[in-house]
């Protein structure tokens, strides 16, 4: 039987410092992506801060997002933005590159990407 060393993915990957590195890497890509730039604000500072709060909670860390903003309701919060299958794929590509750049190790990288993929699929709200 394998020993469980961490209570959550958040703990296993190094907590908020690692989440911040992922978010920084991710948004450096989003800021240059032609499909994503139109649906993000010019200044990504607040968006990145909220993403850090969300991913912290999403991967088992403190529930800071919920404490500040209430229930995530991600689909509802994203309805104003046309999220097409191509934009979903672009978002996932940026996130996958960020996970790789930060060096998230297996099995956590795969589990994180699978959870993010499910969420990204749920966010789509506009056909091509």
Automatic annotation (TrEMBL):
It comes from the Bacteria. Pfam families: Bac_globin. The keyword Heme applies. Keywords: Heme, Iron, Metal-binding, Transport. Belongs to the truncated hemoglobin family. Group II subfamily. PANTHER family: TWO-ON-TWO HEMOGLOBIN-3. This is Globin. It comes from Oceanobacillus luteolus.
